[in-house]
């Protein structure tokens, strides 16, 4: 029998009340509730596992991402949670589709661990894989290579970043901000924390590798060679609504 006192957040809330608020609330209310449940406890985990199973047939949202994050953090301390994740979500909650045959499981793992620095490095490697052997060898991209990137792979990369960052990071997020400043790069760079005044943010120590970063801060794109690569990436047809 589950102990309702295992989590201090449940002192004033029963499991049924938690379930009701999580399952029936608006996305904003769900997210606000989840922010208070990060310490978990068996009752919390039971309800969160039930919630993920119910939502499994739908594309994941940032709410499901937050639920998964809480459970992923908890799994080393709970055999039940660990077994649940291995059984129902062995590769995470984001479908890891790839037209290029790329294995996105290592990136999913880094993002689930909130290891954004290593995830950023691996994302660049994955983009170079999409571009081909020459890009992999040189470890950077030509803008002309990007138009050939499969939409499926860009959607997977973007979804992994969005879902595991509470909706703060990802190429589609950067595109949204870019369009919001009328494609003005000089306005975008300080907005996403890549430049302060005339000074570019220094890599890696100047960047913020956690969720306190500005919206759109990650993943990075090297601006030393100009804006043509990131412009091609943010202009890719993958982001156009059908």
UniProtKB/TrEMBL annotation:
Looking up CDD domains in the UniProt record yields:
GUN4
Record InterPro entries:
ARM-type_fold, GUN4-like, GUN4-like_sf, GUN4_N
> Which Pfam families does the annotation name?
GUN4, GUN4_N
Q: Name one GO cellular component term.
A: outer membrane-bounded periplasmic space
Q: Which domain of life is it from?
A: Bacteria
Q: Which SUPFAM superfamilies match?
A: ARM repeat, GUN4-like
Q: Where in the numbering of this chain does the GUN4 N-terminal ARM-like repeat domain appear?
A: 14-90
Q: Tell me the ranges covered by the GUN4-like domain, including all copies.
A: 98-237
Output the Gene Ontology terms for molecular function: tetrapyrrole binding
Its protein name is Ycf53-like protein
| Native species | Planktothrix tepida PCC 9214
């Amino acid at each position: 029998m589950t102990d309702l006192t295992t989590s201090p957040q449940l002192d004033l809330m029963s499991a049924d009340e938690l379930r009701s608020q999580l399952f029936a609330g608006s996305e904003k209310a769900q997210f606000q509730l989840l922010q208070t449940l990060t310490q978990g406890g068996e009752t919390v985990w039971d309800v969160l596992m039930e919630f993920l199973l119910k939502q499994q047939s739908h594309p994941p949202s940032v709410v499901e991402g937050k639920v998964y994050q809480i459970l992923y953090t908890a799994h080393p301390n709970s055999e039940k949670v660990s077994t649940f994740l291995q059984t129902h979500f062995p590769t995470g909650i984001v479908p890891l589709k790839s037209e290029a045959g790329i294995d996105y499981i290592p990136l999913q793992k880094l993002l689930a661990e909130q290891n954004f620095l290593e995830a950023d490095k691996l994302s660049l490697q994955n983009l170079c894989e999409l571009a081909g052997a020459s890009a992999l060898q040189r470890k950077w991209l030509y803008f002309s290579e990007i138009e050939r990137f499969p939409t499926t792979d860009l959607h997977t990369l973007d979804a992994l970043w969005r879902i595991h960052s509470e909706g703060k990071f990802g190429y589609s997020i950067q595109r949204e901000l870019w369009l919001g400043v009328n494609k003005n790069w000089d306005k975008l760079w300080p907005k996403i924390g890549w430049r302060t005044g005339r000074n570019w943010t220094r890599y890696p120590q100047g960047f913020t590798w956690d969720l306190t970063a500005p919206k759109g801060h990650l993943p990075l794109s090297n601006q030393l060679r100009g804006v043509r690569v990131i412009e091609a990436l943010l202009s890719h047809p993958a982001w156009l609504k059908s």
